[in-house]
Prior knowledge:
Layout: H1 24-28, H2 71-74, H3 82-92, E1 105-108, E2 112-116, E3 124-129, H4 149-157, E4 170-174, E5 187-192, H5 194-205, E6 222-226, E7 233-241, H6 248-260, E8 268-276, E9 279-289, E10 304-305
Amino acid sequence: MNDDRTSNELPRRRFVALSGAVGAATLLTGVEAVAGRTASAAAPAHAEPAPDMCPTPPPGGTPACPPAQLQPLCGSPADNDPLWRDVQYCTQGKPLPPGQNPPTCLKVTSDYVVLNGRPSSPHNFLLTPSCRITGIECPFIETSGAPDYWNDAWENARSGGSVPVQYPDIGLGINSRSARFLDQLHLHMAGVRASTQRRLQQLETTGRMATSPAQWNAAQYRVSVTGSDGSGDRTYRALRLPSLGMNLFALLRQYVVKPNGLDMANQTLIVVPKMTGATFAGAFYVLNSDSSLHDGTNTCDHLLVYG
């Protein structure tokens, strides 16, 4: 979900303060269509993913979670964040507050839950951990013991996945702490415009895309990409990877955040699978930005298409 906590980056997804009768998943990806915004392609007719029966015990045993000493940075299981309540409903059957509608638990595993985004569309979903993790600032997600949430999101969102994103091109993203509305980590599984896909392939062809994480911070790989929301060009650090087998959060800290003396909490990440027509071309474009860059951004919302 985006949550516009800052006023210097507009247009952005704007979230309506809905009544308590609306579940956190409704709040979380609340995206209002920006005036003049048009999708690059109409979503094809599809059948809605069949939800898991809610609540349902997650299969596969206990999820990998941050240790107790990281609670100040990663949150406590006793927290009352609305999205975290939705996760607990899906994974533990924990009752929701009176008047709050239960979420639709599209998929429940020991490591994550998939929920609908808002506005509800066939290309707007969320993947959120089954354990308490506030967001990108939590150091646990950079460790080898953390689940590979990015690859999990891709495997669900891709054609043939459990919750396929019905859009010609897929985008995955996470917002910075200041740009999100609720404090339970969530990856957006949405669409991107065809023009975004073309632009990234052009950058790769012209040598403007880093091919090694060690190059990610180099100035020649800071590129402009036009937003899908009419906000103009934004600057991103661009990296091409052959797979999502490496921990993107760890790579970001090691090769971008630490060398520049930045704060992990201020970063946004966007992953765009490379496509040839309707076929996955076996590579991923990984974009990072923050407000320290000229025309940088701390939200993934400029590139993703939700509604």
